[in-house]
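subagent[fold] <- orchestrator: predict structure for attached chain, return tokens only, no commentary.
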Amino acid sequence: MEINEANTTEDLWTPYKELAAVVEGYLATEGGVAPYAVHTFESVLRRHKQTFLSLFKNPPKNPANREELKRGITEGITLPSVGRIMLSKELVDEAIIISDMLNANELACVELLHAAQRQAARRAGPARGLLAVLLYHDGRRALVHALRDLVTARDGVSWSINGREEILSYVSRYVEQLVADGLLGGVLDALRRSSLDSELELLRRHRALPPRQHYARLVASITSTRKLLAGVVFASSAQRGLDRDILLRLLNEQMTSPTRGPTGALDDISLALQMALLYALDLSVLHRREDGEELAKKLPLIQDQDLISVLLDELSPPAQQNQSQDTQDKRASGLRALCQLSLGLALAALKRAPQSLLRRGSEAKVELLDQDEVLVDAAIDGEAFEYLEEAILSSETVATEEYYQRRIHSLITDFIVLMHSKLMEMRVKAEEAGRAAQMYAAEGLAAPGTARRTRLAALLRCVERLYAHDPRGLRHDYWRACDASPHTYRAGGRAATLFKFVRLSGEVVVAALLAAYLRALAALAVPRHTWALLARRDALSAHHLLAALQLYHRNLRVDAAPFADRAHASLGAAALPAARPARLLVRQEEVEAMIAALKLIAAVAREDEAAAASICENLQWDAVNCMFGLICCHVPLQLKAELCLTLAALGGAAGTAPRVWAALEAAQLVAQAKDKRALNAELLEVECRIEEYPLSRAFLALLESLCAAAPLPRALGAGARPPGLDPYVEHALVRLALPAPHRPYVKPYEKWQMLSLCFRLFVRWLDQYEPAPSDFPPAGREPDVNPPPGFRLLMQLQTKSEFLRLVLTTLDEAHDLLDKQMEMGQTYVEETLISALQILERALALERPLTTAASEAGRSVLIVGLSKLILAPEGPCSTDRLVTCCRVVSLGALLPGAAARAVALLARALRWPAAARQLLASVAHRHDLAAEIRSGFVECLEAEEGAAGEEGAAAAREAKEGIVGLLLQLLPNAPPNFAHFLLGYQVHDDISRSALHEAGAAGCPRTCLHSVLDILDAHIAAPGSPDREASELVEKCYQVVYTLCARPQTSAPALRLLRARDYFLARHVKQVVNLETASARTISARSWAVRACACEAGAAGAARQHAALAALLAALAHAPARPTQEWEWCVIRQCIEGLPVSVTAAVEPRWELFHAEQLRRAIAECDVPAGAGRRVSVPRVHALLARELASLRASAPQRTLVTAEIQKVLDYVTEINRQRNLAATLTHYYDSWRQLTEILFCVAPDDLLNLESRKNLLLNILQDLLNKIPPAEVLPQIGNLASGTVLLLLVNLRHCYILQKRESNLKSSEFEASFFGPSNQIMQTKSLTLKFILHKILSWILVSSGSSQKMRVNLYGALLNFLNIVNLKPSPAEPEEEEMNATYVSRLDSSKARPSKEESTLKSMVIDVINGFGDKLCSIVCSDCIGAGHDVCRMVALSCLDTLIDINPGIDWMNMLTNQGYLRSLIDSLLQDDEGLRESLEAQPKSLRVLYVYESKMALLIKMAGTRLGAETVLAQGALAALAATRALDCHPDVHAAHHAHDDQFVPSVATRFRQIIVPALALCDALLTTLGSQNHSCVLHITHFLLSHVECVDMVLRAAHPNSPQGLLVELEALTSVIARASNREVFGAVCGDTALQACVASVQRVQGLMLALLPRFQQPPPQQPEPDVRLYYKVVCNLLLYARNTMCGEAEGGGAGGAGAAEAWRRAGGAALQLLRALLARRAAHDKLLATTHHQLHSVPAMTLADMKKLLGDESTPASPLEARAAVLARLRARARVRAAELQYCEHALHAAAHLVWAHARLCLRLALPVPHTNTDTALSAAGTLSAALGSEPAALRERLLAVFTDRFVDDLLDTTKNQPAVQRGFLEVLLKDIKTMIQFSPL
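subagent[fold] -> orchestrator:
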């Protein structure tokens, strides 16, 4: 809570709540950093000093303020909390009423009403005025709570708190000043004024009492305030004592008007004040602590010189007692006596203190100290111990308050030690009284009261009451003398005296005090020492007690017949002596002594298992059989009940339980209903008559203890009856539980006590039961063995039975009683309610296993199912029990245990969809019930954990965790569901349209979602944030937040609410924790938070929510402390820092008794799936080992050793589970961080994370990640995820590189220096980022050979992206950098020359790193390329090898591939893939993996063919031969059907798949031709052989192609014509004809030639100008055809027309087509030029475009969110269009020039070579010319005419204009061609 010193709201609630929060925050801080500065804390306390001194005094009423308030209706008023505001008349009236009622200032009442208005959403229910009253009393409670905390933090003599020294020092001074100013007097005044009755009467008089559901809260608040006020006085007294005035005032008030509770004991307020009196008169610190003398100097008893004398005057006994004391004096005498005792003991302690404490007036003080014995005598005579026992120790509060117990403990022990003589006098008087009582008894007279009640008996009763509930082990002080540890002199003497009290009291105890002493000794029982004391055979010992019990049993057994007919009947009181034989006469005192002895034996047995075993195994005593025998005899009912309780204690251990079970069965206590020798007779004839049931309750306790100690004895009763526990089940269920609600009771709460015991036993039986088929009875006969008790109970719970009705009705009744806040027996009602909920929960859990077991057994058993029966509506409101469970949850603040069990039952019941739907329908359609249920769950989630002690805090925490777990369980169900209802979603409509607001905004109620978020906010606001540990509740709350953010239906409303709460996720993700020391739960909680942030980032990026994404990025990627280097130390990097990535396996211990291998197998059998992993079931292991132990026949010491070994096994299994859980948690956390990191880099826009910051962040995260992951030690799951993260981060880094390079105009080396840093940094040691990243990736690849294929795929992908950055390869992100010239070079049949640019520094670094790994890296990569791993791994490895060869085209790679046989294996695998490739061409292929692997292999071969050595190697290894033998290339699909199919689905069409096969093969041929040249006859012959091997495919493509063919077919045609054109020349044709192997293919060659030449006329007209087709393909095909025609025509010209008339006709048509093509291309070129100019004009006019123009350009496919985005999209689209049109223009010009070249060649052939040259007279020339002339016929003349018609001056000028932007060489070449054409036209002889 923030502290606002200037503008604190001056109402009567808010300042006090803020004060309480501030005080708690400061005092709870143990060192370290407090939430605020110390001076701020001091200023807050100074401001509230007057408030503390004038406690509960409201600011007075003011007539002026009242008038101002009334004017506020019309004129308005200024309030500190809200400013200027107009007030409503209702508000003013309410404020005046509250002002008159509370006598408070009117403006403060208005502020209080405004506070109530603000809190209305958090406290649903009462109206504003009533809520203001509740807040008023809550504010008073908060104020007193803060005061009590301050007084408690004051330094003193009783305790000290952990906190900052300067804070505690200031608090001590502050409280001392308050006490000096009269604080305690004001507290006592406030306590006197604010009684509960007066406060309620005031509210009742003003009609301000809240309704019933809030009335209990009001009463609790007032009562708590009064308790806190008394606690202030107590804390002050316990720490520093009380001043004289306050001490005397408190003494007088408590002597005159103490308040008592309904039982006669003091109530909590008077108890606290009287304990304060006892502490004020206490000097036990002198001997309690080593520095006691120094501490005692702080107490008023030492500081105030006259205080002791004043107290002596006040407390000294008068000389003569007035016999006519009134009732008031009698009430005061007990407290006076107790104060006398305390003061006397203080004087005795002071008398033994050093004389330094008596500095001034020592002589007078010594005289006063001598009054100690006088005071103690007066206290004893004044019945101090009786008052202590009756008024104080009878209160249950003493056992719960530590320092109450400690003070009374010191009081008793000081009396024993310091007043030992008085103790001896009390013993003497007790002996005298005992003898007198015996004399009276001998005369047959009743002894007077003074003889029966002695002072020593009262002291022993105090000891019994005090130590009966001793959770702090104070009773051990009586046994310290028995310990072997050394003591100081002072402590040793005290310990000896206390032990002497215990020992000697038993040795010389008189008969009258025997029972009291035994009870006291039972309360003081401790392990070992008490049994050692009783084991001695002197005076009073265990032998004496048990032998007496045995003698009593023996005497009763020989009793004659008078009592035989009622052997089991019991007497409510002792029998008269005359009615019984003298030897059997047992007085009531003796019965009480026996009961006390049994209590002692039971206490020793509970404390010491060895003692219990000794008692049970001693055959001389035969204690167990003797006790069961006494139960069967004629003894009082209370003695029987105590016998059962003692047997329960004796049988409470695993070693003694079987003996007690056997004795119980032998005693036949539970038999048939009509048997008089059974407990049923006692129940019906005695207990029902007296309406008390102690024996039945004790027997239930016996059964519960035996069942809890050891596994149930299945063979019990074998021989006499069917073995099993059925008689005991029937007795507990039929005779005790079912009739319990209808029996009469003296005390009504005993009904609930009986039901709680029955239900607790049933819970035990159900928990121990697991359904099995053998439990169902066989058909037609009785079972040989009765099933376990849980079977019978479970069967009744799964059908409509009386037992089920009892449980359900008890559930309703218990809830109603607890809701009404009953006083008496509330504990038993709560226990019954918890047990009923546990019964139903366990029955629901066993329903499905029971049904499964019944079906396996094959029995026709009717099982309706509790999941259906529990939904049956009953009652006037027709609500089912699930609604009742929800109402029980609403009591979570008062009954946390019941709420926890109710939530568990709901979680179990709502696993059935029908139950979940019915509950939602029952609640959601009733507005009042819905508000009640929702607010109840909220209250349970927000209940204070420390309000009910440690057990209550644990139960409250369990309830909260259960509610959050219930939300997690229900959220995945179909919406709407009950979880959505609790979280505030609109369940009557689509929940995705719900509007979640803060509580109170827009009428939104407070929901569980608000509570969950507040819990998480409180967690991160706690002090010591870096080292804080998250609880299971916090972990589940984060998981709820993630689930809401991750699910589509709930994410949008939840994310809006989270952003409205000051960007909740961004605030929480910034709260980093130390992952190295954090627990698994803390890491898991952090993981869910990070994962929720990933959902937030994804949603914000998808919805373009700039502010949300900016807040998240500011939290994750920015460091405000270092703005200059914000990426250096950001949260996203801290989130991974210190995270362990490996877990040490649990070390198996050395087994001493178990066989190691068998134990491992047993543990493996208990390995069960749990979530995403596996866990070893500890209960299964324990049950298995327990069965082995039960079947083991061994002595007690051996069983002890086996038990210890079993515990060792369980510890080992727990450690295994802990390690597995830690590994799963670490993996989950890393996966969350991975998701967040990857999503952030994917969705973060450039304006929030610019390229420079993105690049730096990527490099640093990569370095951190690779530095953190040890490849050989990392968890496999984390390794897989980390490798994927490295891959994605490198993809993002490559993207940054491409984008930044696109924006830069620098050269490559300069850009590298600017992007990665100077070159001298890149080339330094590998600790630098890039070199380090590459080295780590390669090292990881080397050691990951045994890892999963997924990891290797990720690593190769990461390496590939890194190499692509280095290699500067053209990318789709850089289309403007396409190397078009390389395509033209290859098509012009020139060798591809590698550019001679200087290698970059970065590439040199990469080469050095790769070379540093040597041949091992090469071998691993090559092995993965051809290995038997995953296909994806092979593909990525092939791609990496491809890039590595490209980066470092040295001989090493070629030698490795060739010498080691990898290349040959790769080529051979092409043939092995042939079958798979053909299967991939089926209409419905099984898999396409072979196809993609084939593409990767071909890409590698193409890359190798890029160098001459590689091309020769590929050719020599038979790559083309393998492709020629591949039959898949012959499977070309039908052209007309296949190429009309579209790839709309994920699986590409058959035509596309075939294209993926043939195009790479043709590309390999193209690469070989490029590298080796078309003059390499060997290469050309191999390519020709490849083409002719698949001539049918070639024929199909060439025949079917035309300009308007589908794009896929044109792609095939382009690749095919490129290879054919470049491989075609006359030498090759001659080689084909001369090669014996290819002679049969001459016809095929000629057919291909004819088809190629026939294609050119078909392509002489370009396709129509449309936006969809890619015109560049057409131009490429035309270029290939023109090249082929030119090569063929030149070859024929050189051969003199050897082709004949057919060839001449083909040339003629090709020449004519070239001329037409030239004209068409020139026209198309002009159109392209115009389109490009238009695009450039649009680009220049983009800044001036309107939004409508931009939308028109963008079309309907994109809808930009803003004009800025629209302008950016238009620019990107126009630039892409400009690049495409520039490329089309370039291709068109190239085709145009090629056509002009072919026209020139055709004209040369027809107009020059076909005609004889006049000056050439050789026969060869004449013969060639004649042959050509004959072949061409009239073509030359016709050609000349066409050329004359086409090559006009304008045409020539237009043709020359196409080279205006090209180099001069190109223009000159075209000019020469045109000049030669004109010359041939002009000078042709035709």
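orchestrator: received. Logging for downstream: The radius of gyration is 50 Å. The mean pLDDT is 82.
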